[in-house]
Amino acid sequence: MAVSDSVTTCLSQPVHYAICKLGFEKKDTYDINNILSGNGEVCWQAVTEHVCYLESDQSVDYIKSIRSLGPVCESVNVHFKSLTKEQFIIQYASWLHWTNCTEVFLEVFDVLQYTQTTEVALGLMKLTSCLERALGDVYLLKGNDCPFLLRDLLASEQLAVVFGQAVMNVLRIFIGSPYGLNLRNVLWHGFASPQEIPAKYCAMLLFLTAGLGQLLQTYLLQTKCILLHRPYVIFVSLEELDVFPGKYLNINLNYETLSVAEELVKLSSFVLKTMLPFWIAALTAFKQSRYADSVILLLPQLEVGLRLLFTTTNKCPNRLLTAESSAFYTTFDEMLAKHLDNEEVNQLPVVLEEPAMASEFLWDFLNHQEGPRVRDRLSHGEINLEAFPREVANQIVAFAITLLCRFSDDNMFSLKEHTVIKPLMNCASCYQSRFHPISRLKKQVLECMKSIQLWSKLPTVPEEQVQTIKGLEENPEANTLILMISEFTSQLLQYMPQNCCNSDDPINSVLTERLLTELCDTRICTLYSPRPVLEVVVILRKISTQCHQVSEQVIASAEVRYTQWVNKTLRSRQRHNYLRMLNSIKFLSPVLRLILILITLEVVSVHAICKKNPFDYQQYLKFLKLVLQYTENLVTYTSPGKNKWDETMELTNKALIKIRKVCDRKLMLMHLAT
């Protein structure tokens, strides 16, 4: 029997007991009128009376509190089932407006009428996400930096001031504390199967959210404060997320593809059989264009599937279950780490066969700070669920299909080789990170090079007009600069791709966008980049940013000055300065292009250099900081308010001399590394 067939629950015994049994031990029938006033408001005092406290330190006794609140939750659930949608809206909708996503909570009410376990779990995940975001907005009435973790948010003094500590204790019994039901975390991290989440807890959280709205309204009236909602995060540059690009490679998650995926779900060893309803619901949601729902359902299942592989390959089967309050969950962060907490090497990347592909994709979409961080943003309520883009859902679903296929039996050959599946597998096999700092640096230098290339198209003054300007002297630094750049560039030829350079004209043949693109296309495994490499990349990115700013300033100044020249609105001194600028940028362009090429060579070679030649790291950082200082000064000198073009040439000459000295040794190290 496969491991995925034999696992009946991912909840440890104490957690399973707390969620599935503890709240059902008291068989009392609780009168809803005890906690609901005649005008439809929540009687919070009656609710908080069910919270029990330890005699030792007066902290919440979660076990007794869950047991006591069980009949209350059931009463609320029955009450909601007795209401029509119209009745619920009339009685509760106005108290949900403070969440800024009333429609989500109305959807949860709809789900509770039918008690479909998968939909209840989905509703609870969406409810906790939106509730957390709304509570964060309330926190900002009293504080500045909203806590990232829900448990810290619920334990904050700021929320206790608004709602009262007793009310916050009620919330922490259901969400946010590892000692309570912790419903948010067991669902979002993929530990609970659909049948393990009682609908009455979802109903109770819906009821409590309305009650919080009542308390908040009173607080806002008393304090004259205005609740502001933070804007949602919007995914930008969606083309960067296009890993499985349908419009280019005829890959489309159409009905046929999703039908094959449904067959894979039923047979793949990546899927725990208890979680099968989540997978089917996720694919169904995608078919129905409910893209946020599809991804919300799918992300926890990717986590539990990878956790199954992680615990099996690293021989720690106990880590498949939910951790107790005294230990950590086995989550994406640990599963994607290079080493286990006992310093042994994590075996999961080896099992994935294409470790760079799977791990880099997951790091890109879930973890890297400059990536979409889909799971974080969804689970913390940072995204408008109604506007969740299909493009993002397309990538997550397609990636999930590749994992289903990868961990399917060989006798499923016909499905694996299906014409709609093979293109997905081909795309996945050649995936390269897009949001690792090294990948972002590559993108930066290419954008900067494109900007510098525009210099050649800038309008310029005809030579005959230049000759009429008296007192304009040639800069003595010019010839020295050209010589140094030529020699420098010639030295780099041996490290360039073949047949891309002309040794007779090294400057114009080497320092090109085409060459830079070729260098950036060099595949670099960014997974588990050592800290020294990342420190180098931070400085290189700063250098690239400064170079780009210089380029933008030059373009802006040149266009303005040319217009003023044509309109004859420049004074004599300004005309001289403008012509010095035109002369300077002829030499500045190859210098900046040279720096971009050097940056890219650094990225390509730094791993090998560090591994084979443990040169003086601090000296190397000093060199990079020297280049950074030069580019920062360049930003100042070329700014519209300074326009110090003679000083720019002098600064560049001195900087190149220093860079040349250090680079002679660096090029030798690069040679040894290759």
Helical content stands at 55-70%
- For the termini, the CA-CA separation is 49 Å
The helix count comes to 32
SSE-based structural type: mainly alpha
Largest pleated sheet:
none
Low confidence ranges: 668-674
Mean pLDDT equals 86
> Per DSSP, what share of the residues sits in E-state strands of 2 or more residues?
under 5%
Round the Cα radius of gyration to an integer and report it. 31 Å
Query: Which overall shape is indicated by the principal axes computed on the Cα atoms?
Result: elongated
Structural features, described:
The chain has 674 residues and is an all-alpha fold. It is 62% helix and 0% strand. Helix 14 packs antiparallel against helix 15, helix 15 runs antiparallel to helix 16 and helix 16 runs parallel beside helix 21. The longest helix has 41 residues. The two termini are 49 Å apart. The C terminus is likely disordered. It comes from Onychorhynchus coronatus (Royal flycatcher). It holds the Pfam family DUF4209. This is EMARD protein.
Write the layout of secondary structure elements.
Layout: H1 3-6, H2 13-20, H3 44-48, H4 62-81, H5 85-96, H6 102-112, H7 117-139, H8 150-154, H9 157-163, H10 165-174, H11 183-188, H12 199-223, H13 246-249, H14 255-267, H15 276-287, H16 291-313, H17 332-335, H18 348-351, H19 355-367, H20 374-379, H21 390-406, H22 413-416, H23 422-429, H24 437-453, H25 463-466, H26 477-492, H27 506-510, H28 513-520, H29 531-566, H30 572-612, H31 617-637, H32 645-673
InterPro entries: DUF4209, ERMARD
Protein name: EMARD protein
Domain DUF4209: 131-211
